């Protein structure tokens, strides 16, 4: 009998193989057999509007005019944002924009430069 590794999400011992994936029946988590489970599961992947993976320190461009909440000003299309920082939450990019200051942006409204 083949022994499969415990689920990386809930640590269940009842995992089984489905094709080239391993599946946990308790939490319904699926992962590739033989992959580095811990590192890929802990890090959340953030993608821009075009599907490019974003990382801390990247530079991005705003692809749509965005209203700034609590202000009458607008963040114009084409505004470049340097040295972004990825955070958890709905607005997953934390940055400083010249002329506006510290802001949080959604990754769906930017593209990687």
Question: How are the secondary structure elements laid out?
Answer:
Layout: E1 16-18, E2 21-23, E3 30-32, H1 37-42, E4 46-47, E5 53-54, E6 60-62, E7 66-67, E8 74-75, E9 80-81, E10 85-86, E11 93-97, E12 101-105, E13 110-112
Antiparallel strand pairs: 1-2, 2-3, 4-5, 6-9, 6-13, 7-8, 10-11, 11-12
Describe what is shown at a glance.
Mean pLDDT is 87; it is low at 36-42.
Task: Give an account of the 3D structure.
With 113 residues, the chain is mainly beta. The chain has two domains: 1-38, N-terminal domain of TfIIb (Single Sheet), CATH 2.20.25.10; 59-112, SH3 type barrels, CATH 2.30.30.40. Helix content is 5%, strand content 33%. The chain has one helix spanning 37-42; strands spanning 16-18, 21-23, 30-32, 46-47, 53-54, 60-62, 66-67, 74-75, 80-81, 85-86, 93-97, 101-105, 110-112. The strands form five sheets. A three-stranded antiparallel β-sheet has the order 1-2-3, with no helix packed on it. The protein has a three-stranded antiparallel β-sheet with strand order 9-6-13, with no helix packed on it. The protein has a three-stranded antiparallel β-sheet with strand order 10-11-12, with no helix packed on it. Strand 7 (66-67) and strand 8 form a beta hairpin. The relative contact order is 0.17. This is Alkylphosphonate utilization protein. Residues 46-112 form the Protein YjdM C-terminal domain. Belongs to the YjdM family. Residues 3-31 form the Protein YjdM N-terminal domain.
């Amino acid at each position: 009998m083949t022994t499969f590794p415990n689920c990386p999400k809930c640590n269940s011992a009842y995992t089984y193989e489905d094709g080239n994936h391993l599946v946990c029946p308790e939490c319904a988590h699926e992962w590739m057999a033989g992959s580095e489970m811990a590192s890929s599961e802990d890090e959340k992947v953030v993608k821009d509007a075009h599907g490019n993976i974003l990382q801390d320190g990247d530079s991005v461009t705003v692809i749509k005019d965005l209203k700034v909440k609590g202000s009458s000003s607008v963040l114009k299309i084409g505004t470049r944002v340097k040295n972004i920082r990825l955070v958890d939450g709905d607005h997953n990019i934390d940055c400083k924009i010249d002329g506006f200051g510290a802001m949080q942006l959604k990754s769906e409204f930017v593209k990687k430069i």
